[in-house]
Structure formats: C-alpha cells, structure tokens
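Record pair follows.
FIRST:
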Amino acid sequence: MVNLTYNKNRPLPSAEELPSSDETPVDNQLQNDLPNLLLNLLALIWSGRDDWYFGVDMAVYYNPDESAFVPDGFLAVGVNHDTGERGRLSYILWGEKYILPILFLEVISEKYNSEYEEKFLNYQSLGILYYVIYNPFSGRRGRFKKRQRLEVYKLISGKYQLLESENNRVWLPEIGLALGYEKGEHIAWYREWLYWYDQSGNRYLTAEERAMNAEAIAAQERLAKQEAEAIAAQERLAKQEAEAIAAQERLAKQEAEAIAAQESLAKQEAEQKAIRLAERLRLLGINPDEM
C-alpha cells in the first residue's frame, strides 16, 4: 500500500542518492515508443511552455522510505521543464514542490504486470488524477483481450472512474488535450499509436508529418508558381499575337487607304484629261456634249 506519511523535517535524499529506475527492463518495444511519441508531440504542442515535464520509464518517488513507482510514462504540470544541463535523474516529489504528476500511463506488458490491479490501486492511493492503460492485445489475445484498447480513469472522490471515450479519444480538461489512438506511421512503423488531440478532435501531427505537410505545401506552391508563370507566358504570347494582329490590321488599313488614295488620284487625273480633251474639241468647233 502507498504510504504518504514520513518526517519531512529530516534531511531528504536527492536524486543522486536514489535509483533512477526499478532496474526492470520493459518487455516490449511499445512501452518505450508510445510514451516517447507522446513526449515528442508535447514538445511541439507546448513548445512555448516551461511548466511541464513528461517522463518515460523514470522513477517517481513519493516517500523516501518507499520504493518508487516507474510507470511507462507520466506527465507533471506546474513544474519546470528545464532543470539544467543534466536534467532529471528521477522525479522526486519533495524536490518538485510536492507537485504530483497529473497522469500516469501504462502499456500492458507481454508478461502481465498488474496494470489493472495492484498498480491501479497504488496510483489511486497516491492521488494521480488520470491513470491511462493502453492494451495492445485488446480483442486479440491474452487474459485481458476483452478490455478496452484505451482506458482512461479519473480520480473522483478518491476513486478511479472509467471515462467514456468518443471516437477513440478522451478529453482531459485539466490538461487541455484529448488522448486517443488511431493508425499512423511513426519511426517507419505503420500501426496503431497514441496521440494527443485538440478539443475539436483534431490530431496533433508529429514532426515528421509536419515536415511532410510543409514539403507538400512547398511543392504545391512551386507548382502554383509554375502554373502562374505559364499563364503569364501565355498571356504575354496572347498580347504579342494581339499586337501583331493589330499591327497587321493597321498595315492593311494603311494599304487600303493608299489604294483608295491612288484610285482617287487616278480618277482626278482622268477627270482632268476629260476636261482638257473637251476644251480641245471646242477649239476645233466640236461640241463634246453632242458626241
């Protein structure tokens, strides 16, 4: 059982004096990869904040005389994220102003490790607000195949109560995020992963997904630029063709005007010749009007 009572006035051990873990290795890859994905996502989501810490496979000490708990992952809010170059060796409650982690995460082990029983009761007694259990064997095999894939418990009046999920997500108001799962690709591995979501249910993207989206957007912008340049080139060509047509029309008009001027001049010359001829005929006594 969890014992929270001890003499706080005596010298309390530092992180250097305590083991940083329980020396028990994880028994499957997901127990490292899932919490690390959540950590990496938080580093993006809360990049401007320095009041949180997400530990992976790290000891959490609540009593200097008791063994630490070592959840697969945990989140503490209201503590310094940056604790110096060395960082944390473990999470020691008396070294964190007695701020309890707000969330513990356990991934069901290949060899069952009492996630639904002893750990459940211990974390409840410790006062961890949210206890999250991810069961990759749900619906497939093992003694807990009938349990939900993701179970999120909240401490209400000292007891854990299972929260309802919506679209495989559970909203955690004290954290301002939802926790859920869906299939995706991470570290070149396509499977079901745990992710953080906003209140509208939009999943926060990983750094790799953001980079891919940025590259896709850049490619679209390059394509749009090329299309705009092609349209501009077509417009310039169309303008040149229109100007050529206009020039041809002006030339044709000038040629028509020249022809008309020539015809007018020829007509005037013909009329002058007719007048001179008529005058000569009259001098010869011939009336040209009677001819």
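SECOND:
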Amino acid sequence: MDSHQPQAVGYRRTLADRIANGAGMAVLLVMTLLFLVPFYLLIRNGLASTKDITAPGWTFFPKDIQWHNLADLFNDPEIPMLSSLRNSAVVAVLTTAGTLLVSSLAGYALARINHPHSNKIFYAVLATLMIPGAVTFVPSFVIVSWLGWVSDYRGLIIPSLFSGFTVFLFRQYFLSFPKELEEAARIDGLGYGGTFWRIVVPNSGNFIAAIAVITFIASWNSFLWPLVVAQDESAWTVQVTLSTFVTAQTINIPQLFMAAAVSILPLVLVFVFLQRYLVQGVAQTGLKG
C-alpha cells in the first residue's frame, strides 16, 4: 500500500472537519446577529428622534443622538417609570424567593418522604399544569379582591407563589440527589428538615440558581395579572407602565423604545451573570432527552 494514501485520507478528513467547523461558526454568528437585532433596534430608536424613526431612509444609527430621551423618560410626571421599576423588582424578587421556598419544600417532600398518598399528591400537582390559566384567573381575582389585596404587593405576589411545574422540577432533581449524603446526615441525628437545610440546599446551588433565574424572568415579564390587580398607579409594574404608551392617543415613539430598553436591562444583566446555571440546572433535573 502506498504510504502517501493514509496521509491523504487524514488530510481530507482534517479539511472536512475544518469546513464543518467553519460552517458551524458561520451559522452561530448569523444566529447571534439575528438575536441581537431587537436589542439594536431598541437602543437605536430609543436614542433617535421621531423624525429619524419615521424617515423613509434608514441609517444604522441616527446622526443626531438624543441623549436626553433617557432623562425625559424618568422626568415625565405622567409616566411612573422609576416607581414601576421598583415595584417590578420587589415583586420579582419576593415572588422568586417565595416560589423557591414553597416549591423546593414540596418537591423534597414528594421525593423523599414515604407516604401512602405521595403519588396521588404528585399526580394532583401535575394535574394543575393541565388547567388553563384563564380558568383560575377570575376566581383568583375574586379572592384577592375579597381579601383587600387589590393594588397591594400581597395581591401581586402571593397568588403566584405556587407553581406546579417548579414543584415537578424540584422533585425530579431531588430524586437524583445522592442519598448517601442524606443517610450520613440521618446518622448524625438530623431529621428531614435538618437534612434539607444543612445538606440538600447547600449542595443544590446550581439548580436552585437556575430555577431562580427562570422564575425571576417570568415574574418580571408578567403583564395580565399585574394589569388587573395593580389598579392604582402607585402599584404599577414596569410592564403595565409600558402598556400606557400604546393606549395613549399620542405616542412618543422614542420614549417608548427607551422605556422598553430600560425595562429589559435587569433581565439582560441577570441572564448574562447567571446563564451558566440554566444549562447546569436543566441537566440536573433528570429531563435529559
């Protein structure tokens, strides 16, 4: 056999691998640029004038950048932007903390406590995922109104604390948690509560952080429930405030884009700093295909 033939085959394989890697990188680059287009439009139009936005010709960036659009957004007395950002932050943080507490305890109990009706309770939790939100929306509002929680943090937060899907994810994760660590804690005299708080939670940081990111983003982006419950302007969240731009008779287009850019900034920061936990958390749920 010719000694040059294996070298040629190896070279062709190396060339094919390089072409495949280059094509893969090109696809990822195109997808990244497409993903960044909405953010570019928000910043570009937020710093432009109405004339630049509605002009027939398109420029990559406005010639006369309107830096005052950001200050005008927060100084406009008709737009409670600062208070709505504060409300969204309070609601999102407390909802995330409460959901993690309730769902983790429920998931751990369903995964580890041997009870004759554990499976029935678990199936009941799964059944809640099949109920459309529109079915429970009106009864939930009636209860919140009866309790006097309209335009109150309690009305915005408490009805959102239970999540059947989050309970399911925690149960799946705890089923795969090493039992050896828990058995060692039991030998030391810890019960279910002590084992959970001293052993399980400290060793589940990545997964809990992943669920926290998902819950925070969902709570921050929530619109319909805050729109109905937060009837007073002082209780508006940022999503409700953004809706006022669209329903107004006259729309300040640059201010609308600037408000949208400001509203997603906390989500971008949360995602950038905690994105690695999302991948690790999903891998640890036992939902790998």
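COMMENT: The two ends are 45 Å apart (CA to CA).
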